[in-house]
Write a structure and sequence with these properties.
This protein has 316 residues and is mainly α. It is 84% helix and 1% strand. It is built from 8 helices and 2 strands. A two-stranded antiparallel sheet has the order 1-2. A hairpin with a 2-residue loop joins β1 and β2. The protein is globular, with a radius of gyration of 63 Å.
Amino acid sequence: MSERLEPSPDSGALSTSDAVSTPQMTTVPEAATAAEATTTVPEAATAAEAATAAANTGVPAKVTAAEVATAAEVATVAEVATVAEVATVAETATVAETVTVAEVATAAETAAVPATVTASLLMRAALPLLALCAALLTVALPLSFPADGGPTGLDTWFEDRLDGDTGLYRVLVAPSNTYIVIPLLLAGAAWFAYRRLWWRAGFILLAPEFAIIVNSLLLKPLWDRPLQHYLAYPSGHTVHLVAVITAIALASESRRARTGIAAVTAVVIAPAVTVGMIGLGYHHATDVLGGAAAAVAMVTVLYLPVRRVQARSAHP
């Protein structure tokens, strides 16, 4: 019962082989595990890494596409913004151009309005100024007369140089005669009456006759300058002729007509009549000059209310 078995050499060999065989038994799962560890895990890791790399590679691709799309959108927006800016600039330039044209037009209108107002004021002030100057000349000339009302130095200078054919002087003085002045007055009044401009027609009929009456009853006695058997200053013939011409010129209200009438009167009629009167001894030179000035002053003053009435009737 207590006998102890001693290991034999064969059992020891068996034990060695068993020791060797045992590791082989445990190597199979270990090998499988090692194989899985050495083969599957790295492959899986490689696949995961590949997938990860692919994923990582795809993300930039997607990001790049998004960036490209974003860049395209930005470029489009920038292009649209640029087009909008260009359009805005064009509109701004157009608006600026329009504003500039408007400013120029406004400036032109602003400049034109004062010019028109100035011209109107000058036209309105011209006639009163003309009447004032003519009246001053009429009053100033007698201050140069000698105490006895004889000729002045200017009168003597002309009279000494006009001693010749009396027939020529009679022709030159003819426009101041009644048979010329009255038909001229009637023709002027008839012309405006034909055009139904009644105020102007009446003015032409009445103003010269009023001037003759004032001259004969007031001015001649006031300055009392005798010549032969009558009072010479201002010359009655000259007052009548110039009054008719002035009345027609003022009634026409045409700058061209007034300029033409004034030019013909100053260059042709007045010198001719003056020379004829001095040559015939009817008047001194200062008598003719004073008569013309008195006629212009009186007729112009009479025309001012007529012009005012016409303006009111035209713009009630």
